Amino acid sequence: MPKSDSEEGEDTQELRDIASRPQGAPRGLLIYYVLHSIAQKPSHGYEILQDIESKTEGAWRPGAGSIYPLLKKLESHRLIEPVEAPKGGTAQQVYSITPIGIRYMEKISEHFKDIGKKWSSMRHIFIEIMGTENIADFLIGGANAQFSLTRELFDSKMDKMPKKEVESILKEYSLLLERQLEWSGKKLEEIKNSSNADESQRGHLESGR
Known about the structure:
CATH class of the domain at 23-112: Mainly Alpha
Number of helices: 9
């Protein structure tokens, strides 16, 4: 029996909801970030949740049902340990990282080095499914986001790196930007020449009438 218009509308809305629903962060990222946060300073679960939501602008929101069992699991594996909260502070349990937790972080950090490469390898899929109406937002928004990430990364990490290494990275980054600028300049010139040729052709056709 064919579906009614209202039933088809409900099905379409359900598909939209599924498509727009976030698929979550890479596997293991929550564990790593919890350990990273606690390694920076003793923290409690709610503080970490707020930090994640703030830094991802609400795009990633692990629930309390994820964070608190995870903290207990990390504690049971002696990766973190409970500490006394500062006087006048929160009533929630505060944790600090253990030497075992630090060593574990060093091991699993290797896992995240390949994440960027994996996402980059998906670029042909994104290009194929992306509509032309989304290109401007993708290019301009993506470039702005990438620049903001680069600047924040250097501002937060640069003082912890050897100056020679920082200088080398910045030189390579500058060369990359120059190549991008050269490419965009060539594309603009091609579009300009194509537009001039079209106008010239239209002029010849109109004069021949």
